[in-house]
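Example S7 (structure tokens).
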């Protein structure tokens, strides 16, 4: 029985990413995709914080404590 991994897009659109014959392979790949999505969301949140700081404080200053810069 085949197992599928889909990406859910806006407006309930589905994009098939992969097909697997075994559940264990499909499960491992799905978990990897989920971890990547979590890291992307965390990174995107850091960028949003930096943009908000820059909008409030004027030009961005390197090393001024931005999470994305590690400061």
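Recovered sequence:
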């Amino acid at each position: 029985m085949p197992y599928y991994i889909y990406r859910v897009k806006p407006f309930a659109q589905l994009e098939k990413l992969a097909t697997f014959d075994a559940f264990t392979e499909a499960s491992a790949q799905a978990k990897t995709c989920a971890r990547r999505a979590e890291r992307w969301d965390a990174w995107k949140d850091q960028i949003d914080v930096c943009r908000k700081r820059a909008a409030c404080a004027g030009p961005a200053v390197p090393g001024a404590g931005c999470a994305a810069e590690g400061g």
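Notes on this example. The chain has one domain: 3-69.
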